[in-house]
């Protein structure tokens, strides 16, 4: 019934979104402050997110963990329990207003029931979480490593626990208030609590360009609770292959740093790909690590730099030239396109998918 009723309004999605937000902000003007300054409907995440959640979560039990995490994550947006009712009501009214005569009370009920189940799980997740909604952190170092790449370090004001390989979402209130984006931590947990990030500014990207071009030492940013499961299994005895594209190196560096603390027995191969040599922004450090740890090898490749002296081509093609890779743990990180082509190559090389962990910075194409 949820899917059937959505088809009545699907064509008018933009209008539904406009009405939905207008409804919320007119009845509760204070809620406007929770949302980004620029909110063209195309980019409005919340409505699309709720509709997708309500329609795909046929079995809320199965998505329990996801919904709890989403509820925890909403603390950073300053969402309070009473807001759920306002948003749920606006959603149903917006659909009803645009669906025409075919809309029936049974649809109202179906959406209200599904929304209530999801909201309850999100609220339970938020309630059970002891973490603060976010941490403030001060920028203590910022280095431009290439035209559009920066490496920077922040010092959280309170300790922020995470595991190597995780990412967290970040807001830069001074330059892009209320826009949160996820970035991978590029180091393993340290005694001084500092966190390093590698960011590439993408095209017209709001947050990434502020982080690369505007962020300065002394600025404060906000960080939300860490997420992600691309972690090392310390019990595994298999050798390790890390495959990174561009700033996809960040979580790989974190895992590598963790390995430098205990590894003696596992061979570790890092494959790092970029368009041109300028984008291989961290090669000096990787080579320093390779010189220091005999178990580590680094292969670098450029896909659009014919005079580059290392490997040529996409990183997935380069990985296929090496090997054999039949008894290794794989970690893959980079853009959706890079991750997708690497997973395809690994499947062709008959690497069991259970041995592959990956983080994709954009949706898989
Ligand atoms: C789990 C995870 C970890 C991530 N870790 C990192 C990291 O360590 N370092 C890092 O630099 N980024 C990382 N990202 C990407 C990051 O979250 C943002 O998506 C990226 O910085 C763009 O945000 P923006 O606000 O600048 O762009 P937006 O304003 O959101 O987007 C602007 C335009 O750029 C397009 N776009 C968005 N992202 C990309 C992209 N990556 N490549 C090409 N086009 C894009 C959008 O479709 C849009 O058209 C990670 C993403 C995920 C999901
Ligand atoms: C069923 C209930 C809800 C679901 C499934 C849901 C889901 C989501 C998802 C998946 C996102 C995108 C997160 C991201 O990109 O990091 C999001 C963003 C957001 N949500 Fe919710 N949400 C719900 C309820 C609410 C409520 C009640 C509020 C309160 C006003 C709220 C406020 C926000 C805000 C402010 C954002 C960021 C918007 C932006 O960046 O444009 N959400 N939501």
From TrEMBL:
Name of the top EC class for this enzyme: oxidoreductase
Q: Name one Pfam family in it.
A: FAD_binding_6
For this protein, the Enzyme Commission number is: 1.14.12.17
Q: Does the keyword Ribosomal protein apply?
A: no
- Coiled coil ranges (UniProt) are none
> Which cofactors is this protein said to need?
heme b; FAD
The segment(s) forming the FAD-binding FR-type domain are 132-233
Q: For this protein, what reaction is catalysed?
A: 2 nitric oxide + NADPH + 2 O2 = 2 nitrate + NADP(+) + H(+); 2 nitric oxide + NADH + 2 O2 = 2 nitrate + NAD(+) + H(+)
**A Gene Ontology molecular-function term?**
oxygen carrier activity
SUPFAM superfamilies named among the record's database cross-references: Ferredoxin reductase-like, C-terminal NADP-linked domain, Globin-like, Riboflavin synthase domain-like
Keyword line? 2Fe-2S, Heme, Iron, Iron-sulfur, Metal-binding, NAD, NADP, Oxygen transport, Transport
Domain Globin, residue spans: 1-127
Q: Name the CDD domains on file.
A: Mb-like_oxidoreductase, O2ase_reductase_like
Q: Does the keyword Cell membrane apply?
A: no
Q: Which PROSITE patterns match?
A: FAD_FR (PS51384), GLOBIN (PS01033)
InterPro entries (UniProt xref): Cbr1-like_FAD-bd_dom (IPR008333), FAD-bd_FR_type (IPR017927), FNR_nucleotide-bd (IPR039261), Globin (IPR000971), Globin-like_sf (IPR009050), Globin/Proto (IPR012292), MRET (IPR050415), OxRdtase_FAD/NAD-bd (IPR001433)
The family classification in the record reads:
In the C-terminal section; belongs to the flavoprotein pyridine nucleotide cytochrome reductase family. Belongs to the globin family.
Tell me what this protein is called.
nitric oxide dioxygenase
Query: Organism source for this protein?
Result: Paractinoplanes ferrugineus
Q: What is the lineage of its organism?
A: Bacteria, Bacillati, Actinomycetota, Actinomycetes, Micromonosporales
